[in-house]
Amino acid sequence: MKGYLVLEDGMVLEGETFGETQQQSGEVVFNTSMAGYQEIFTDNSYNGQILVMTYPMIGNYGINSRDIESLKPSINGLIIRELCKTPSNWKSEMNLDAYLKMHHIMGLEGIDTRKLVKHLREEGTMKGVITTSINNKKQIIEKMKEEDIQTKNFTEAVSTTKPYVLPGNGPKIALMDFGVKLNIIKSLKSYDCDITVVPYTTKAEEILKLGVDGVFLSNGPGNPQTLMPAVENIKKLTQHKPIFGICMGHQLLSLAFGADTYKLKYGHRGGNHPVKDLLTNRVYITSQNHGYVVDEKTINEKEIMITHKNLNDGTIEGIKHKYLPVFSVQYHPEASPGPMESKYLFQQFVYSMRKQKQAV
Ligand SMILES: NC(=O)CC[C@H](N)C(=O)O
């Protein structure tokens, strides 16, 4: 069936639908990874977004039940150049078309993704609608303009509603869940951590009552500034426990230290973003997925040190407190998908918890 992507600025692109034919809206963002589409679709940080993949063929190794970052895909829609209907891989259990149907997500193929991404790069990411009819294009655009994605809380839909424990014999961690990726949990589990995953609304006092050795702040969708109550809790926790934050966790931690965040023109989403560790001068190739970033001008240098920078645009990629065992990165050391060379950061967190324990 014919399908269309209608952008907020009036641009329309025509393609063929797959998956479920169900009209959906969302911020249209692009990811440049060449592989790992399953991990990307199931990353909760994409909640509410229509995703464009720049790699020209998607679906070639099918879908399996193992390579997931959460139990279901979070994307509101998928836009690709070409859909592979006959996957070939020993792990494959179904094709992408069937998978999107199962989760009621609409896909569009046959789209000139190169033209679309050039447009988004020049104009910035914007809202869009995927639909099977553009007879009412004017109304579609007007309606899409009404929704304010900058003030909407997307975390609510993906955070756990009840705490749960993943027992282990290593350091005891409270993981504040803003939409956590499974590989973050697996990475902490590789150190046999005892993890209590708590809802993002959990109060600092309740977390401290758990008697944990450290607190982990997860990734998650949406604007970090919609989560100011969590920022207040994090502010309290920084005075008591070692903390490690990734992506949304990094942004919230920075807000807790009084910094500001802003929205990037088209974000960083892909598997090859170069990041420089300013303390060692080493460059890491990193996996990324974010639209917001911490504003360098607002960092309180008396307390906070910028530890990492993005070599493409110079934005902040990591911070650390000068005296407290508290640090965070904007990129994804857990990879999934993407390079795994930053995994040592989990070890650094485990080490900081052990050190703190010995000190008291
Ligand atoms: N992966 C993430 O945690 C993303 C954080 C935030 N939602 C952003 O887009 O910047």
From TrEMBL:
Domain Carbamoyl-phosphate synthase small subunit N-terminal: where? Answer: 1-131
UniProtKB keywords: Amino-acid biosynthesis, Arginine biosynthesis, ATP-binding, Glutamine amidotransferase, Ligase, Nucleotide-binding, Pyrimidine biosynthesis
Region (CPSase), start-end ranges: 1-171
List, alphabetically, the SMART domains matched. Answer: CPSase_sm_chain (SM01097)
Q: Where does L-glutamine bind?
A: 45, 220, 222, 248, 251, 289, 291-292
Could you tell me which InterPro entries the record lists for this protein? Anth_synth/Amidotransfase, CarbamoylP_synth_ssu, CarbamoylP_synth_ssu_N, CarbP_synth_ssu_N_sf, Class_I_gatase-like, CPSase_GATase1, GATASE
Report the Pfam families cross-referenced here: CPSase_sm_chain, GATase
Known Gene3D superfamilies for this protein?
Answer: 3.40.50.880, Carbamoyl-phosphate synthase small subunit, N-terminal domain
Its EC number is 6.3.5.5
Q: Name one GO molecular function term.
A: carbamoyl-phosphate synthase (glutamine-hydrolyzing) activity
Give GO terms for biological process.
Answer: 'de novo' pyrimidine nucleobase biosynthetic process; 'de novo' UMP biosynthetic process; glutamine metabolic process; L-arginine biosynthetic process
Pathway given for this chain reads: Pyrimidine metabolism; UMP biosynthesis via de novo pathway; (S)-dihydroorotate from bicarbonate: step 1/3; Amino-acid biosynthesis; L-arginine biosynthesis; carbamoyl phosphate from bicarbonate: step 1/1
Provide the catalytic activity annotation: L-glutamine + H2O = L-glutamate + NH4(+); hydrogencarbonate + L-glutamine + 2 ATP + H2O = carbamoyl phosphate + L-glutamate + 2 ADP + phosphate + 2 H(+)
Broad EC category: ligase
- Catalytic center at which residues? 247, 332, 334
Q: Which family does it belong to?
A: Belongs to the CarA family.
Q: Which HAMAP family match?
A: CPSase_S_chain (MF_01209)
Which purpose does this protein serve, as stated in its record?
Small subunit of the glutamine-dependent carbamoyl phosphate synthetase (CPSase). CPSase catalyzes the formation of carbamoyl phosphate from the ammonia moiety of glutamine, carbonate, and phosphate donated by ATP, constituting the first step of 2 biosynthetic pathways, one leading to arginine and/or urea and the other to pyrimidine nucleotides. The small subunit (glutamine amidotransferase) binds and cleaves glutamine to supply the large subunit with the substrate ammonia.
Oligomeric state and interaction partners are given as:
Composed of two chains; the small (or glutamine) chain promotes the hydrolysis of glutamine to ammonia, which is used by the large (or ammonia) chain to synthesize carbamoyl phosphate. Tetramer of heterodimers (alpha,beta)4.
In its UniProt entry, what is this protein called? Carbamoyl phosphate synthase small chain
Q: Which organism is it from?
A: Natronincola peptidivorans
By which gene is this protein encoded?
A: carA
